[in-house]
Please model this.
Amino acid sequence: MTRSLSITVDPIAEPALVSGRTLSPGMGAAVSFAGVVRGLEGSDPITALEYSCFVPMAEHQFHLLFDRLAERGTVESVRLVHRIGRVAVGEASLWVEVVSPHRAEAFQACQWLIDEMKRVVPIWKKPLRD
Model:
């Protein structure tokens, strides 16, 4: 399984990521997900989220999740970009793509990866109200 991980302060350039996709002949599904900062945290309005992490530990945890995903054997590739620093309302803080032979496998793998990421990867967010 090929994998790509980026933890960055730069905005996520989704069109460039999608246009850079390559699929082998047996792959029929490329599922992508963009997590966008909402204007509310609970019921309180916010202007941005401030994400922070210890990058080496976060990368380590992401790679452990990628290893577990590879063990399933149904995913050809996964690409993940997570922003840190200030991310304004309406901007993407997370982008994930999973490529698999069939859509059900790709959707399931993408959902699993995001759920597990939120559970085990040490990335913290702080709401900002400027």
Notes: The radius of gyration is 15 Å. The chain has a mean pLDDT of 97. Residues 58 and 122 are 6 Å apart (CA to CA). DSSP finds three helices and nine strands in the chain.
